């Protein structure tokens, strides 16, 4: 406020004149800022009451043995120590989740990019193809799709029926601990539609004259792809990779439905969020589950920071 | 901003490509499309198949069409699926209202009003986009339990009226910023209040983005499983997703026909939204990279 008065000579006199009366100054401040804050009021209430407040409480609870029945008792870092050293279910949930992330994200993005490239050629019927490929992504979060998937990969399900046409006897994908995770990966890859649409949007931003110039110079299609398309698309690839990875860390519904809420067989589909849910709402170990939640935050934060740090070596920003 | 993404690129290379090449591409894309749709079509076909035929065939065409699975499924639990549909509809519509109202108010403040601390709060708002909901889950649950809101729709709906979906705020801020400044500056000169500018100028010009937010809100809420799983324990309050999951558990392997019939029904509203508002949905994804 005072700085503003000094910098603009014109307003100084006005400010001083009105500043004589304290309530005049207050009124000016009020008039300048009240509409903004009034419009922001619902969000501010939500931010303090539903985000910041709960986040701080959750951090506190992660150092307690809170179980919903008794008041939370301080246990220091005991929850974190147990997670790190003496919880085989945590280790297995983490490894299942990492496997899922590492397998599903690259496959999903590769399919998304390949299909986007195929569609981005001024094809007839583009809107229809685009819609068909996007539909599974849109339906994907629902229980019905998880139910369907469970049937597809059942031992007498469609996948095995299709395999039997080729004389292959498929395993019982869902109930075999070595295979169950792959059915969930397949489900995630099937839903490549939304990154595909973002790739399509990105491809359209690439100026056509770059390709024309490259063609005139005699560059092959493949070379144009590596030298023009791929570098110019790196910001979009980066964005898709970060969003999809964070999403994969948070996957819940398919694992819950397909395993009947257990994460079985033998914890092979015990996703991190499913384990967190079991601890919080199955065993009412709310303090412990809070610690699990914070570890998830830290992992996502580390991953995101790492992505941004490495991105400057491979993401090409056009300035 | 939305226009730039969907503007058709001049199809300069269509003429250059040979006929066989485009036939091959179309053939590949059609094959891929069939593979994508096959599970969904199979489910719909299984829902009208005679029960004994469901697993014997990978074909999509049933030998006879029989809607009895729908009747069995609809009444398969103590409470009919009509109740679950109604509950889901009420929650979804309220969430749509909450998101559209609260997020547009917030976005208007961030995009068009000047006030001290605006950039600070905007940065905070963007920061909340990155926080996974698991962090606030347990304290929120305890809060809503203490308020006596568990087994009501309030925990699922009230937060939306407090603009808890930062994603839509971000989407609307982007859109509002694209509307010419002269419009509200002129209105401001004429003595229009911020509220009138919001209501009379900004909202009418922003129908596309409001519709996008509304449609995504509806579909995501309709499909949401986790929220209802935590807050709704009384079967009378169940949403369609919980109802379907209960049906899965109660019938296990005995009534596949009913299961697929009810699964198909739960997807119908989403499918119709998709059919009618495809363009808005695709623009929404393309411009902001909304998840899913």
Topology:
The complex is a heterodimer of chains A (319) and B (292).
Chain A: H1 2-7, H2 9-19, H3 22-61, H4 78-85, H5 88-119, H6 126-139, H7 143-152, H8 158-165, H9 180-190, H10 193-204, H11 208-216, H12 221-249, H13 253-258, H14 272-282, H15 286-314
Chain B: H1 2-6, H2 19-47, H3 68-74, H4 81-112, H5 118-128, H6 134-146, H7 154-161, H8 166-177, H9 181-189, H10 194-205, H11 207-223, H12 226-231, H13 240-251, H14 256-288
Helix pairs in contact in B: 2-14, 3-14, 4-7, 4-8, 4-11, 4-13, 9-10, 11-14, 13-14
Biggest sheet architecture of chain A:
none
Q: Compute the gyration radius of chain B: what is it?
A: 24 Å
Quantity of strands of chain A, as a count: 0
Largest sheet of chain B: none
Uncertain segments of chain B:
1-15
Tell me the strand percentage band of chain B: under 5%
Number of helices of chain B: 14
Helical coverage of chain A, percent range: over 70%
Rough outline of chain A: globular
Give the largest interface pair and sizes: A-B, 98 and 97 residues
Number of helices of chain A: 15
What do these coordinates show?
The complex is a heterodimer of chains A (319) and B (292). With 319 residues, chain A is an all-alpha fold. Helices cover 74% and strands 0% of the residues of chain A. In chain A, helix 5 (88-119) runs parallel beside helix 9 (180-190), helix 5 (88-119) packs antiparallel against helix 12 (221-249) and helix 14 (272-282) packs antiparallel against helix 15 (286-314). Chain A is globular. The radius of gyration of chain B is 24 Å and the shape is globular. Chain B starts with a helix and ends with a helix. The model of chain B is unreliable at 1-15 (pLDDT under 50). At the A-B interface, helix 3, helix 5, helix 6, helix 7 and helix 8 of A face helix 2, helix 4, helix 5, helix 6 and helix 10 of B.
Compact summary:
Chain A is mainly α and 319 residues long.
